[in-house]
Amino acid sequence: MGHFGVIGLVLHPARDCGPAVRTIAAWAAARGVRVLGIAGEPDDVPGVEVCPQEQLAKQADLLVSLGGDGTMLRTLRLAVEHQIPVLGVNLGKLGFLAEIDVPDLESALGAIAAQQYEVEPRVAVEATVVGDGSRIAFNDVVLIRMPGQRQAAIGLHIDGQPFVRYVADAVVVSTPTGSTAYSFSAGGPIVSPRAQGLVVIPVAPHSAFNRALVLACSEPLALELLPSSGPLGLEVDGELARTVHPGERVELTTKVAAGSVVRLGSTTFYQRAQRKLKLSDPGELG
Predict the structure, then answer these.
(1) 130 and 198 in one domain?
(2) How is 59-78 classified by DSSP, letter by letter?
(3) Has residue 1 been placed in a domain?
C-alpha cells in the first residue's frame, strides 16, 4: 500500500466505538494522517472529518472497520470499487474477519505504516436479477422462502446449461468467506479464504437431489425460479434486497479479488475458526 495519508472509519451502529475512534484519531494526528468518518456515524471526536458514505473509499488509503463481521462485510462492499484494503477491529463478539482487538490497535497501525502486513484477497459474488441491476456480496446470496408462501423451487444453470433442480426452504450461494455463516449452518463445509469458488447448498431440501455443489470462479451460475416456486426473498449478505417471482432469474458471477483484508499475522483463519466455533484443540483429543 505504501504511504497512506487518509484513514476511513466504518462503525458498528450499536456498539461503543468511542475508545477505538479516539485511539485512531490521536495516532493519526501525531503523524499528519487525516481521519474520515461517514456523516452521521462517528461520535464527535476531534480530528475526525465527516464525508458522505459514497466518498469514503474514494478518498481513503485504508478503511478500518470497527465492530464485528457484519461491519467488515459492509466495509468490504464500500471498498469494492476503489480496491481499498480493510483492517477489521473486533468490538465485543469474536469474528472470522476482524484481525485485531482494540488494545492492539495502535501497534497494528504502526505495523501497517511500516508495511509489515499482508493483504488477503477476498472473493465476492455479484448477483443480478435480469432487468434490475446488480448487488455485491462477500458472504452469500440467498433465495429464501417467504413466510406463508410455497417453498423455493429453483433450477440451477451452470455455464449456460440447466444442471439440477432444488426444492428447499432456501438456496445459499456462498463465497469462501461466507462458508462459516449461513452455508455452515445448513451443513456446508468450512472453506479456506484462500480458496476460490462458490458453494451452492440447499437449506432443508425436499427434493431428491439434496447435496451441495462447489463451482469454479470461472463458471457462471444462474438460479431460475420455476413455475412451482413461491415468491422468494433475495438476501445479499443477510440484507433483504428484493422479492423474486417465478419466471425470474438471478445471475451470479464471481469477482475473484474484489476485497482486500489486512492481515498482520496475529492469528490464522483456522485459529479464528477454532475459537469462534468452539472446536477442540487436537491436543486435547484422544
Answers:
(1) yes
(2) H-SEEEEEESHHHHHHHHHH
(3) no
Specify whether 228 is located in the same domain as 271: no
User: What is the full per-residue pLDDT of the chain (286 aa) written as tens digits?
Assistant: 446 799 999 999 888 899 999 999 999 999 999 999 998 886 677 889 999 999 999 999 999 999 999 999 999 999 999 989 999 999 977 788 888 999 999 999 999 999 999 999 999 999 999 888 899 999 999 999 999 999 999 999 999 999 999 999 999 999 999 999 999 999 999 999 999 999 999 999 998 889 999 999 999 999 999 999 999 999 999 999 999 999 999 999 999 989 999 999 878 889 888 888 888 765 655 5
The CATH number of the domain holding residue 201 is: 2.60.200.30
Judgement on whether residues 15 and 60 belong to the same structural domain of the protein:
yes
Those residues whose C-beta lies under 8 Å from the C-beta of residue 268, and which sit 6 or more positions away, are none
Which is catalytic among the residues 43, 61, 69, 237? 69
pTM of the model: 0.92
**Residue 69 annotated as catalytic:** yes
CA distances from 256 to 60, 176, 245 (A): 22, 11, 29
Contact 7, 28 (CB under 8 A): yes
